[in-house]
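Sequence in, structure out. Go.
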Amino acid sequence: LGILQARGGQMDAARASLQRGLEEAAAARNQRHVALACKSLGRLALERRQYEEAADRLSKAAEGTSSMGMHAETAQTLCFLGQLEMERGAPDRASGYLQEAEALSREQEFPTCRMLSLLHQDRLDTDEGRQAVTAYLENEPAIEFAERMELRFLLWQKTHEAQHLEVAKRLLDELVEHAPPEWRESMLEDVR
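Output:
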Protein backbone atom coordinates (compact mmCIF):
# COMPACT_ATOMS: atom_id res chain seq x y z
CA LEU A 1 0.00 0.00 0.00
CA GLY A 2 2.81 2.42 0.88
CA ILE A 3 4.38 2.17 -2.56
CA LEU A 4 1.04 2.94 -4.22
CA GLN A 5 0.47 5.86 -1.88
CA ALA A 6 3.92 7.26 -2.74
CA ARG A 7 3.20 7.00 -6.46
CA GLY A 8 -0.05 8.81 -5.80
CA GLY A 9 1.82 11.65 -4.13
CA GLN A 10 0.50 10.75 -0.67
CA MET A 11 3.96 10.86 0.91
CA ASP A 12 2.98 11.08 4.59
CA ALA A 13 0.50 8.23 4.25
CA ALA A 14 3.08 6.23 2.28
CA ARG A 15 5.70 6.68 4.98
CA ALA A 16 3.24 5.63 7.71
CA SER A 17 2.16 2.52 5.78
CA LEU A 18 5.74 1.51 5.00
CA GLN A 19 6.84 2.07 8.59
CA ARG A 20 3.95 -0.06 9.85
CA GLY A 21 4.91 -2.77 7.35
CA LEU A 22 8.52 -2.64 8.52
CA GLU A 23 7.48 -3.01 12.16
CA GLU A 24 5.18 -5.94 11.37
CA ALA A 25 7.87 -7.67 9.30
CA ALA A 26 10.43 -7.19 12.07
CA ALA A 27 7.99 -8.58 14.67
CA ALA A 28 7.38 -11.60 12.45
CA ARG A 29 11.16 -11.96 11.86
CA ASN A 30 10.55 -11.79 8.12
CA GLN A 31 13.95 -10.51 6.96
CA ARG A 32 12.92 -10.38 3.31
CA HIS A 33 10.07 -7.98 4.02
CA VAL A 34 12.25 -5.99 6.42
CA ALA A 35 14.79 -5.45 3.65
CA LEU A 36 12.11 -4.51 1.12
CA ALA A 37 10.46 -2.08 3.55
CA CYS A 38 13.85 -0.49 4.27
CA LYS A 39 14.44 -0.09 0.53
CA SER A 40 11.07 1.59 0.03
CA LEU A 41 11.47 3.83 3.08
CA GLY A 42 14.99 4.73 1.92
CA ARG A 43 13.82 5.69 -1.52
CA LEU A 44 11.00 7.76 -0.05
CA ALA A 45 13.49 9.54 2.25
CA LEU A 46 15.76 10.15 -0.75
CA GLU A 47 12.90 11.72 -2.70
CA ARG A 48 12.18 13.95 0.31
CA ARG A 49 15.89 14.85 0.58
CA GLN A 50 16.12 13.34 4.06
CA TYR A 51 19.61 12.08 3.37
CA GLU A 52 20.60 10.62 6.74
CA GLU A 53 17.46 8.52 6.95
CA ALA A 54 17.86 7.50 3.31
CA ALA A 55 21.46 6.40 3.89
CA ASP A 56 20.51 4.35 6.96
CA ARG A 57 17.50 2.66 5.35
CA LEU A 58 19.19 1.98 2.01
CA SER A 59 22.33 0.58 3.64
CA LYS A 60 20.22 -1.85 5.66
CA ALA A 61 18.28 -2.78 2.52
CA ALA A 62 21.44 -3.40 0.50
CA GLU A 63 22.89 -5.59 3.22
CA GLY A 64 19.66 -7.54 3.66
CA THR A 65 18.87 -8.09 0.01
CA SER A 66 22.45 -9.03 -0.80
CA SER A 67 22.68 -11.57 2.02
CA MET A 68 19.48 -13.24 0.78
CA GLY A 69 20.55 -13.35 -2.87
CA MET A 70 17.87 -10.89 -3.98
CA HIS A 71 19.93 -9.62 -6.91
CA ALA A 72 17.36 -7.34 -8.55
CA GLU A 73 16.52 -5.63 -5.25
CA THR A 74 20.22 -5.30 -4.39
CA ALA A 75 21.03 -3.72 -7.75
CA GLN A 76 18.14 -1.29 -7.43
CA THR A 77 19.16 -0.35 -3.89
CA LEU A 78 22.74 0.25 -5.03
CA CYS A 79 21.38 2.61 -7.70
CA PHE A 80 19.50 4.52 -5.01
CA LEU A 81 22.64 4.67 -2.85
CA GLY A 82 24.56 6.02 -5.84
CA GLN A 83 21.91 8.65 -6.45
CA LEU A 84 21.99 9.56 -2.75
CA GLU A 85 25.75 10.04 -2.76
CA MET A 86 25.57 12.16 -5.92
CA GLU A 87 23.00 14.41 -4.27
CA ARG A 88 25.16 14.63 -1.14
CA GLY A 89 28.16 15.69 -3.26
CA ALA A 90 30.21 12.49 -2.93
CA PRO A 91 30.85 11.49 -6.57
CA ASP A 92 33.50 8.87 -5.74
CA ARG A 93 31.19 6.96 -3.39
CA ALA A 94 28.33 7.40 -5.87
CA SER A 95 30.46 5.97 -8.66
CA GLY A 96 31.32 2.90 -6.60
CA TYR A 97 27.67 2.12 -5.89
CA LEU A 98 26.61 2.78 -9.48
CA GLN A 99 29.38 0.65 -10.95
CA GLU A 100 28.47 -2.20 -8.62
CA ALA A 101 24.79 -1.83 -9.57
CA GLU A 102 25.61 -1.77 -13.27
CA ALA A 103 27.82 -4.87 -13.05
CA LEU A 104 25.19 -6.82 -11.10
CA SER A 105 22.47 -5.65 -13.50
CA ARG A 106 24.49 -6.66 -16.55
CA GLU A 107 25.34 -10.06 -15.03
CA GLN A 108 21.75 -10.78 -13.97
CA GLU A 109 20.14 -9.12 -17.03
CA PHE A 110 18.15 -6.38 -15.29
CA PRO A 111 17.73 -3.80 -18.09
CA THR A 112 15.93 -1.18 -16.01
CA CYS A 113 18.52 -1.01 -13.25
CA ARG A 114 21.38 -1.23 -15.72
CA MET A 115 19.97 1.71 -17.63
CA LEU A 116 19.44 3.69 -14.44
CA SER A 117 23.00 3.11 -13.24
CA LEU A 118 24.43 4.15 -16.63
CA LEU A 119 22.22 7.23 -16.73
CA HIS A 120 23.43 8.34 -13.32
CA GLN A 121 27.04 7.76 -14.39
CA ASP A 122 26.58 9.86 -17.57
CA ARG A 123 27.82 6.93 -19.63
CA LEU A 124 25.16 6.85 -22.36
CA ASP A 125 27.60 8.08 -25.01
CA THR A 126 29.79 4.99 -24.66
CA ASP A 127 29.29 1.78 -26.65
CA GLU A 128 28.14 0.14 -23.42
CA GLY A 129 25.66 2.97 -22.83
CA ARG A 130 24.20 2.75 -26.33
CA GLN A 131 23.84 -1.02 -25.94
CA ALA A 132 22.03 -0.48 -22.63
CA VAL A 133 19.63 2.03 -24.20
CA THR A 134 18.88 -0.43 -27.00
CA ALA A 135 18.34 -3.30 -24.53
CA TYR A 136 16.10 -1.11 -22.39
CA LEU A 137 13.96 0.03 -25.33
CA GLU A 138 13.60 -3.58 -26.53
CA ASN A 139 12.40 -4.64 -23.07
CA GLU A 140 10.37 -1.52 -22.27
CA PRO A 141 6.90 -3.07 -22.72
CA ALA A 142 7.69 -5.60 -19.97
CA ILE A 143 8.97 -2.95 -17.55
CA GLU A 144 6.77 -1.57 -14.80
CA PHE A 145 4.78 1.50 -15.79
CA ALA A 146 6.20 3.95 -13.22
CA GLU A 147 9.78 2.85 -13.94
CA ARG A 148 9.26 3.44 -17.67
CA MET A 149 8.02 6.95 -16.94
CA GLU A 150 11.00 7.76 -14.70
CA LEU A 151 13.56 6.31 -17.09
CA ARG A 152 12.11 8.12 -20.09
CA PHE A 153 12.26 11.39 -18.15
CA LEU A 154 15.89 10.73 -17.16
CA LEU A 155 16.71 9.81 -20.76
CA TRP A 156 15.27 13.14 -21.89
CA GLN A 157 17.33 15.00 -19.26
CA LYS A 158 20.54 13.33 -20.46
CA THR A 159 19.93 13.26 -24.24
CA HIS A 160 17.58 16.24 -24.75
CA GLU A 161 15.67 14.12 -27.28
CA ALA A 162 12.04 15.29 -27.28
CA GLN A 163 10.66 11.80 -27.93
CA HIS A 164 11.69 10.69 -24.42
CA LEU A 165 9.90 13.62 -22.76
CA GLU A 166 6.81 13.01 -24.90
CA VAL A 167 6.67 9.36 -23.80
CA ALA A 168 7.23 10.30 -20.13
CA LYS A 169 4.43 12.89 -20.34
CA ARG A 170 2.06 10.41 -22.00
CA LEU A 171 2.79 7.82 -19.29
CA LEU A 172 2.23 10.42 -16.55
CA ASP A 173 -1.06 11.47 -18.12
CA GLU A 174 -2.22 7.84 -18.21
CA LEU A 175 -1.15 7.29 -14.60
CA VAL A 176 -3.02 10.39 -13.41
CA GLU A 177 -6.09 9.54 -15.48
CA HIS A 178 -6.41 6.14 -13.79
CA ALA A 179 -5.57 7.33 -10.28
CA PRO A 180 -8.18 7.95 -7.60
CA PRO A 181 -9.53 11.50 -8.04
CA GLU A 182 -8.29 12.59 -4.62
CA TRP A 183 -4.68 11.67 -5.57
CA ARG A 184 -4.50 13.42 -8.94
CA GLU A 185 -3.47 16.87 -7.74
CA SER A 186 -0.74 15.58 -5.42
CA MET A 187 0.62 13.39 -8.22
CA LEU A 188 1.31 16.51 -10.28
CA GLU A 189 2.66 18.77 -7.52
CA ASP A 190 6.33 17.97 -8.12
CA VAL A 191 5.94 17.85 -11.90
CA ARG A 192 4.94 21.45 -12.52
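Check: The mean pLDDT is 88. The chain is about 80% helix and 0% strand.
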